[in-house]
Amino acid sequence: MSHIRLLSTDFDGTLTEHFVGGRCTTALADVLSAHKRLGGYWAVNTGRSLEHAIEGINNFHAPVLPDFLLTNEREIFHRNKSGDWSPEKTWNDTCYQRHDDLFVEAGSLIQRIRTMVDGHPGITWIEENGQPAGVVTSDERVMEEFVAFLEMETTSHPELSHQRNTIYLRFAHRDYHKGSSLAELCRLLDVGKHEVLAAGDHFNDIPMLDGRFAKFPCCPVNAISEVHTIVQSAGGYSASKPAADGVAESWHMFHTVSRQ
Predict the structure, then answer these.
(1) What is the secondary structure of 114-174 as a DSSP string?
(2) Neighbours of 145 (CB within 10 A)
(3) Whether 79 contacts 58, CB under 8 Å
(4) CA separation (Å) from 100 to 96, 128, 129, 132, 146?
(5) What does DSSP assign to residue 72?
(6) Contact call for residues 60 and 16 (beta carbons, < 8 A)
(7) Closest C-alpha to 112, from 165, 158, 161, 149
(8) Using only C-alpha atoms, what is the Rg of the chain?
(9) Cα three-residue angle 144-148-151, rounded to 5 degrees
(10) Of 63, 116, 150, 200, whose CB is crowded by the most CB atoms within 10 A?
């Protein structure tokens, strides 16, 4: 018999609808409270930065706080006894170093990508701390065009990957994504994949929804079609309700299954 010990949820589009925001619904509040009473962990696994994730959580007003924030699709922070967020230093430092090295090694490729972006009025180049971070596009059609260009260019340097959500794209080392950071969190907690429920709605959530790192993948009804396909192929659950209510629906369904 399995038991759900870790709940890994995306934030934007999964707990709240994209570009709308909103507070925790009654259905999800009940689930989070029940999950905590059962001794479960909750991790928000998001593309947001730490600062932006904290802001979102504060505005969400859930009845309990997450135990972990997995930010930028690759960093891990845990909530300490004082309520602050402390980094999982070994993982985060290795992640930062591997990305630093990657951006140096792929310098000429990144410059070609930057030249393309600078010549396109619908794409904005983003840097963080003097390093390439990603792009923002004017709409999802332009994002599709950019992704097609990027995938063609990166065949010469396959370690340079990307994480994509609506009009936002982040450059990333291929070894770092929501799935690999979830796997590391499971290692730290000694939690098996058969004890993990993962919920997401968009492309950047697919690495934690494809069955490799969570036995119980799910998505709300508002998830993109590609996510529904991946979740169903992994034996997961596509909810009939949107966002937070869809996550709550999925938890109840999987909780029943996991207790059988």
Answers:
(1) HHHHHT-TTEEEEEETTEEEEEEESSHHHHHHHHHHHHHHGGG-TTEEEEEETTEEEEEET
(2) 14
(3) no
(4) 6, 12, 11, 10, 23
(5) T
(6) yes
(7) 149
(8) 18
(9) 135
(10) 200
What type of residue sits at position 13? G
Closest CA to 134 of 101, 152, 160: 160
Tell me how far apart the terminal alpha carbons of the chain are, to the nearest angstrom.
6
In whole angstroms, what is the distance from residue 117 CA to residue 217 CA? 35
Q: What is the pTM of this model?
A: 0.95
Residue that is written with structure tokens 């990508």 in the block: 113
Question: What residue has token string 């907690």?
Answer: 189
140, 167 Cβ separation under 8 angstroms? yes
Residue with tokens 């010990």: 5
